[in-house]
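hey so i finaly got around to running the thing on YqcI/YcgG family protein from Cladophialophora chaetospira. pasting the sequence first so u can double check i didnt mess up the copy paste, my clipboard has been acting weird all day
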Amino acid sequence: MLIAACVVVFLLGFGVAILISSKSKSSKVFSKALSAWLPTRQSQSYHEDTQRTDNDVLLTKAQCEAFPPVSWQKQAYDNVKSILLAEDEAAEKFPCIYATAGYRQNQHRYVFLHSADSSEPRNIRLIANALRTFRPLSHSLGPNTSLLLVHPPTKENHSVEKYRQCFWQILRGLRTCDSESWPAEIPTDVNAAKWMFCFDGAPWFFAAMTPAHEQRQSRHASNFIVAVQPRWVFDHLFRTPEMRRHAVEAVRKLIPFYDTVDISPDLAAYGDEGSTEAHQYYLLDDNETAACPYNDLDAS
Ligand SMILES: *[C@@H]1O[C@H](CO)[C@@H](O)[C@H](O)[C@H]1NC(C)=O
Ligand SMILES: *[C@@H]1O[C@H](CO)[C@@H](O)[C@H](O)[C@H]1NC(C)=O
Ligand SMILES: *[C@@H]1O[C@H](CO)[C@@H](O)[C@H](O)[C@H]1NC(C)=O
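ok and heres what it spat out for the 3d tokens, dont ask me to read them lol
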């Protein structure tokens, strides 16, 4: 589905990162800068996780820009920014014009994970809390909103396949801490045409970007990033067949300039016979369909 292309857009890559120690001088400077944006936490260090509240984890553009330049967070954020704005002189326009608009309009929110292993319980809890906080907030942010889950850099390069496993571990992890029931009208079988991942009682859309994607540049970023959107964003964008056609065309026509591989065979309109969103959240780097590794996300 076109949306997938857009979502991808949201997930821009991040720059190289150097993990700063929480005791470093730059970290203190950063905490000071950040505290200006966190009125409820003014005198506390952002790096002390125990003092973070759920709301604190959704950072704005201004908060990302306040990270010290050497921090991995700032470098990852700068990479996303340069992708979305096509800051590199030679860069083509990022195909997801909605992601670029969302960035400019300050409708994006960012979450920086504790570690590169997103399946760790502390990361899953962080993501779960972020989604619960983001959904009500998203309505006031606007229809080009997106939540970017940003992973720290890894020492070793991972493969596209390894990141795919990590991606699905996040969704499986979210299932274990969802206290709301799955909406009755949405199938739970990942292979069903109308399946969508639900969390906190509502459907979501995901798009993953990784350092391993090369041909599918629209899915490349310097860090592993998962862009998440509440489903209403697409319901709004596609609210008439004419609007859907227009939105899809606007993105699709830019993709061939950006990617060196065909548009993924997995991109389809939601509900199309034979398609499933389970194939669209994480696109492969080559011209092949991405089978979902699980039939049942809850199976052990
Ligand atoms: C969202 O982005 C699109 C694409 O740039 C733009 O046309 C539209 O006006 C934006 N929507 C809002 C409400 O700002
Ligand atoms: C990881 O990939 C980058 C870019 O492709 C390359 O420059 C680097 O040498 C690789 N690192 C390792 C440890 O293989
Ligand atoms: C990509 O795959 C589709 C079928 O899924 C095929 O029609 C198309 O020719 C392929 N493109 C290339 C460049 O191999």
